[in-house]
Amino acid sequence: MNNECVIGIDIGGTNIRIGRTDENDQLVDFERVSSKETFKDGNISESLTEVLKNYLDKYCKNVQVKQIAIGIPATLSSDRKQILQVPNIKGMDGLFLGKELEENLGIPVVLEKDVNMLYYWDKYDKKLSDEGVGIGVYIGTGVGNAIFINGKPLAGKDGVAGELGHIPMIGGTSQCGCGNLGCSECYASGWKLVELKEEYYPDVDMNDLFVKKSNDTVLKNFVDNIACVACTEINILNPDSIIFGGGVINMKGFPKDYLEERLYVHARKPYPAESLEIQYSEDKVDNGVKGAIIFAKTLLEK
Fold first, then answer.
1. Tens-place pLDDT, residues 200-255
2. How far is CA 61 from CA 6, 18, 58, 289, in A?
3. Would you tell me how many other CB atoms lie within 10 Å of the CB of residue 33?
4. What residues does 281 pair with on adjacent strands?
5. With pLDDT > 70 as the criterion, what percentage of the chain qualifies?
6. Rounded distance between C-alpha atoms, residue 78 and residue 277, angstroms
7. What number of H helices and E strands is found in the chain?
8. Same domain, residue pair 110 and 136
9. Cβ pair 73, 90 in contact under 8 A
10. Where does this protein have coiled-coil stretches (predicted)?
11. How would residue 157 be classed by pLDDT, with cut points 50, 70 and 90?
12. 135: β partners
């Protein structure tokens, strides 16, 4: 029997999701705890240490934890040691969270952007090759973006490559949460969709928005905005594969055919327009945890 495991963690603004591998490398002991409740006092490292100690006591008493991998909804330093900026969780900015957790738990801890953890899982699930360029565009509350080159995430000089949600839109004047004006996230994100729903469709349930109104000009323009944002990256990188995911893309009735039609319109002709390889991620609650586990195992195999 294999008495070793790795733990994957997906930290979000609402929930912290945790799971580990069993002797067959399958995800087991998946749990969710409230982010707001956990971090309410602002002591991030101490609070997360307590959550992990409880998890270890419950599930890992007779198991050696080889590594803990954590997906963070944040920008991270290029060496992935320091959290630079987190928009939705106060008290995380500037933390060397991995180092502090290692000292508290005595277990190696690694960090990565949460969107890259999602892509690690999708790459595995879709059986995508490590060779070449793969991108993931995840439209949730904001615009998440993963860029993988030969199987590894692109970090950039400062660690903040792939901020697709903060590409400036020509003529854009809307205020973004990052402080800039006219970021693409202001026009092609979940929070923008909520604004459109409240302004134009106040009597329509959010879950039925695309089912009932996908042919309306307002929503067609919104989907076109997503295509424009994605094609900014597609036309620069000419990727081998493209994955779309996130809560908005997985909404009931979301017009994927129209999205692909607009992607073709905005992509450079003849290529990459003629060679777009598009797949869709299934929006499951444990995707980030499973991706974190794959990331941890990848590091351990080096």
1. 999 999 999 999 999 999 999 999 999 999 999 999 999 999 999 999 999 999 99
2. 14, 16, 7, 21
3. 14
4. none
5. 99
6. 29
7. 9, 12
8. no
9. no
10. none
11. very high
12. 147, 242
What's the pLDDT at 13?
87
Same domain, 133 and 275: yes
Could you give the CA distance from residue 7 to residue 151 in angstroms, rounded to a whole number? Answer: 21
Q: Which residue has the tokens 């901020």?
A: 163
Q: Give me the count of residues in the chain.
A: 302
Statement to judge: residues 168 and 205 lie in one domain: yes
Q: What pLDDT is stored for residue 2 in this prediction?
A: 66
Residue reference for tokens 């987190």: 86
Q: Are residues 251 and 295 in the same domain?
A: no
Residue range(s) defining the domain that contains residue 64: 4-117+285-301
Kind and range of the H or E element at 261? helix 256-266
What average pLDDT does the chain have? Answer: 96
Residue 123 lies in a domain: no
What's 51's domain CATH number?
3.30.420.40
